[in-house]
Amino acid sequence: MNDHQQPALWRVISAGHQLEDRLEQALEAIDLSLAKLGVLRILSDAGGPMPLSELAKHSHCVRSNMTQLVDRLEADGLVKRVSDAKDRRLRRAALTHAGQRACDQGKRIVEGLERDVAEALPQSEAVELTRALNRLTP
Known about the structure:
The chain has helices at residues 8-28, 34-46, 52-59, 63-75, 97-120, 123-136; strands spanning 50-51, 79-83, 91-95. The longest helix has 24 residues, at 97-120. 67% of the residues lie in helices and 9% in strands. The radius of gyration is 18 Å and the shape is elongated. α1 crosses α5 (97-120), α2 (34-46) crosses α5 (97-120) and α3 packs across α4. The mean pLDDT is 90. A three-stranded antiparallel β-sheet has the order 1-3-2. With 138 residues, it is mainly alpha-helical.
């Protein structure tokens, strides 16, 4: 069975994996992964330091995985841990200047891939695909 004969579910999953691989490869050029960029974007959007438990919640992962991810981001100089002003026992993750620059670069890479995807389809098909995916993923 060739790719065009696969059931729709498998085509959607396959296309998702292929696009994710393309994005991971593009991010690798700036020493980021999709997971790292996700954390940087959350911190950037938050506008300030966040507890790791909140980062984990927004990333839909467990706290122990977030701790390891923040450890790697901290080792890369993209994030630093800071004490909470109200509870010094609590540590928050904060973007460094380098982290904000990396986040901005990563966002541009994502936007470039989004443009590539949009340009691969006629406008009407892109609109219909978006509608279909929205129905599949409430």
